[in-house]
Amino acid sequence: MIKSQMKHITIDTYLCNGCGACVEMCPDVFRLNELTDKAELVTLEPEITDEVYQAVALCPEKCIEIE
């Protein structure tokens, strides 16, 4: 895959309420930051699977996007 066509996950930590729904669904991709209690990525470029798309869709604050 050409790098310009790769999708990236972004998290708006201002909107994130730290509910942890994304972490429960995809603990290999998302975690809660210990200092801020906000969602963050485990790695910079995680594999974007169907489960990740589902976690993004079910985020109650809609703070996660796949670009």
Structure, explained:
It is a single chain. The chain has helices at residues 21-25, 50-58, and strands at residues 9-11, 30-32, 39-41, 64-66. With 67 residues, the protein is an alpha+beta fold. The protein has one domain (3-66): 2-Layer Sandwich (Alpha-Beta Plaits). The strands form two sheets. Strands 1-4 form a two-stranded antiparallel ribbon. It has a two-stranded antiparallel ribbon with strand order 2-3. Strand 2 and strand 3 (39-41) form a beta hairpin.
Order of adjacent strands in the largest pleated sheet: 1-4
List the quaternary state of the chains.
Answer: single chain
Structural class: alpha+beta
Q: Give the overall silhouette.
A: globular
Number of domains: 1
At CATH level 3, the topology is: Alpha-Beta Plaits
Radius of gyration equals 11 Å
Give the biggest sheet: 2 strands, antiparallel
Query: Helices and strands, in N-to-C order?
Result: EHEEHE
Ranges where pLDDT stays below 50 over 5 or more residues in a row are none
Mean pLDDT: 93
Contiguous helical run count: 2
Into which percent range does the helicity of residues fall?
Answer: 10-25%
- Main CATH class: Alpha Beta
Proper CATH architecture = 2-Layer Sandwich
